[in-house]
TrEMBL record:
Pyrophosphatase that catalyzes the hydrolysis of nucleoside triphosphates to their monophosphate derivatives, with a high preference for the non-canonical purine nucleotides XTP (xanthosine triphosphate), dITP (deoxyinosine triphosphate) and ITP. Seems to function as a house-cleaning enzyme that removes non-canonical purine nucleotides from the nucleotide pool, thus preventing their incorporation into DNA/RNA and avoiding chromosomal lesions. Substrate binds at residues 9-14, 71, 156-159, 179, 184-185. Its EC number is 3.6.1.66. This is dITP/XTP pyrophosphatase. It is an enzyme of class 3 (hydrolase). The gene is rdgB. GO terms for cellular component: cytosol. It comes from Ramlibacter humi.
Amino acid sequence: MVSRIVLASNNRGKLAELQAMLVPLGMELVRQADLGIPEAAEPFRTFVENALAKARHAAAHSKLPALADDAGLCVDAFGGLPGVDTAYYATQFGYEKGDDHNVRALLEQMRDVDHRRAALVSTLVAVRSPEDPEPLIAVGRAVGEIAREPAGEHGFGFDPVMYIPSFGATFAQLPPEVKNANSHRGQAARQMVQLMRERWL
């Protein structure tokens, strides 16, 4: 029976979001920083490879099962990019790293682009040990369109420009509980909870 899992991320927002979803399983999520574990290298070009590397790294250092997430924005018109480089997107265009700069850079790059479909993608990977041959893998995708300008007060990242046609609003305009229920990370977390229930408990 797994009771403690190390989260291979130091993002407090991510910890809170994922912790809430694991409560029904009776699992406690611990941030790797709280165990003195350094961040893992993320050299790969796919979300799943980076998430797996982060999970194995955290499991090896903690001797606990580990959960890792790799997520990003995939824009159709850019062949799926920025993808794994989402966090550093703005730096390619001379801006400092940061959510607001990412949004500004994206809107500038898409100024003359009419095909605006994009997906926010979250890949969660969980391992029981560093050598686990059967990692649990859950993928969530929230498909929408890149808005022409930011709207909304909630969320983070690209939420202010991620327009979801079925809601007629950006993720940043939706109440947090609605966004979390429909977001890429929300979808992936629900799948992961189901996988853990079936395979680990």
